[in-house]
Amino acid sequence: MTLDRAAGLAETARALAAGDVTSRALVERTLARIEATQGSINAFRIVRAEAALAEAEAADRELAAGARRPLLGVPVAVKDDMDVAGEPTAFGCCGEFPPVAEDGEAVRRLRAAGAVIVGKTNTCEFGQWPFTEGPAFGATRNPWSTAHTPGGSSGGSAAAVAAGLVPAALGSDGAGSVRIPAAWTHLVGIKPQRGRVSTWPRGESFQGITVNGTLARTVADAALLLDAASGNHAQDPHRPPAVDASAAVGRDPGRLRIALALKPPFTAVPARLLPEVRTRIVELAEQLAALGHTVEEADPPYGQIGLTFVPRATAGIAERVAEAPFPALLDRRTLGAARLGRLLGGAPLRAARRAETVLHRRIGGFFTSYDIVLAPTTAAPPPRIGALLELSGFATDRAMIAACPYAWPWNVLGWPGVNVPAGFTADGLPVGAQLLGPANSEPLLVQVAAQLEAELRWHEKWPAPPVAERSAAA
């Protein structure tokens, strides 16, 4: 039996357990696809060819002996801000970084589930921007249109899944960095509750706004990877109660009260929802209403939530810059953000952290009237490669806020959100919508996402293979 690129995570795991295919064969095929698309898509910073083949052979021996684990022998990828033992963690930066000694907790849990880590995917410098480009690795391109970015900062993971190189991948989300590339590459992207997937060896990444999440073509696959990666290191400061995301797939959510939130949260510079994107989100709201839910326009009481985001984000950048082995090679915008972070790292940061409790209470009250929120994931489709790369720091911030004003409040709150595909622009560029809930609401969000998927069948649409891959196949 040969699995094609449409085989998802769960289907691949079942085929391996049934003996229909070997992990070695799957990993060989995966490595060949990565090699064939590096020139056109450029999804990977590190490809672990030799190590992955050895891990696949070990998985085959386990499978032959009757061992069963959720992802035993399945090839997956992780973002290059996660530690993989024996590999460097450059996090989008220039320079030769030393290999790390131990897996990060999320990677350790994937290995415990049996996954084979085939490589580490590209991300922009310290994950700051919604594009995946830089002098360290070039530009990662969108499989739906290689003239456009897949988004960021988990753009390499999104591109790898959208192109069918791996069935699923881990990313991280500090201001939408899983949900934005998922929206712009027609994927499901789960940003879980803070602490659901450990960010250890950092108990809090970027002052607690960044979490690890999953990217896949289907809700079931994104949930399966989430369950496999979930759990905590003994020293993690955030330890939410366990949930079973996979069990929620296919379970009827009942009739829900859904708030359609089209107004961008307050930002210091203008942000406007493009009419074409608005149309796709409204169509999704109409689909939810047709499924029996009550949908009405209402916006969460965000208030001045942006004032609590900036100190946490920039202080996080300052922490990373202070540890950087090659500070002279860092982007000028990174150094500017770090300077601001050092200024805001005292009393403003402490005030921002304290404000989270107030925000939880105020925005949590919104969920006495509504069960979930439906909002755009971005205000615009993906920009062209290079459009933001050479801008000044202020111009980059303006462009970033204009395109992506919707995702970041849920990072301040630490609550779950799920991007679902919402269709395409007239030019064929993907856009997405996010389902947002209160603390620990992943099961409910997964139920609604799966309900939409059953109707819309978004996973059946694929981008055309890149030219290099078509040539290799021929």
Automatic annotation (TrEMBL):
It holds the Pfam family Amidase. InterPro entries: Amidase, Amidase_CS, Amidase_dom, AS_sf. Residues 26-445 form the Amidase domain. One of its GO terms (molecular function) is catalytic activity. Belongs to the amidase family. PANTHER family: GLUTAMYL-TRNA(GLN) AMIDOTRANSFERASE SUBUNIT A, MITOCHONDRIAL, TRANSAMIDASE. This is Putative amidase AmiA2. It comes from Streptomyces afghaniensis 772.
